Amino acid sequence: MAVKDSREVVIEATPQEILDVIADVEATPTWSPQFQKSEIIDTYDDGRPRQAKMTVKAAGLTDVQVIEYTWTDSSVSWTLVSAGQLKAQDATYTLTPDGDKTKVRFDMVVDPSVPIPGFLLKRTLKGGMETATDGLRKQVLKVKKS
């Protein structure tokens, strides 16, 4: 059963600064507790990640996922290439500049390949959505300060 969710957050940074934090795939486990390990497999000519392999722990399951990114100046999306516990995963960050801030919308659809009770799946997705927005905001502001 596929579930989807979306969430918005305002980050006091430019879209470029936010995309740079998202592109730092190998640092993701330092600010996103669901990620145990994250490595870039392949990059585009501009250095942005094209494919990444991640070990993710969520809903009591640990999964190794390979995802493929698509980048623009105002968004990044990814789609699942392979995983053990998921049939599909699609996610998009859409960034809209607003003065010296940026409105960030995160949309995600997850389709597990193993049966997970609906309430647990929704709770797990909610936690992931909070990290993907509030956790991203904290990390962007931390990187910006240093």
TrEMBL record:
PANTHER family: COENZYME Q-BINDING PROTEIN COQ10 START DOMAIN-CONTAINING PROTEIN, CONSERVED PROTEIN TB16.3
Pfam families reported for this sequence: Polyketide_cyc2
SUPFAM superfamilies on file: Bet v1-like
Taxonomic path: Bacteria, Bacillati, Actinomycetota, Actinomycetes, Mycobacteriales
Protein name: Cyclase
Taxonomic superkingdom: Bacteria
Gene3D superfamilies: 3.30.530.20
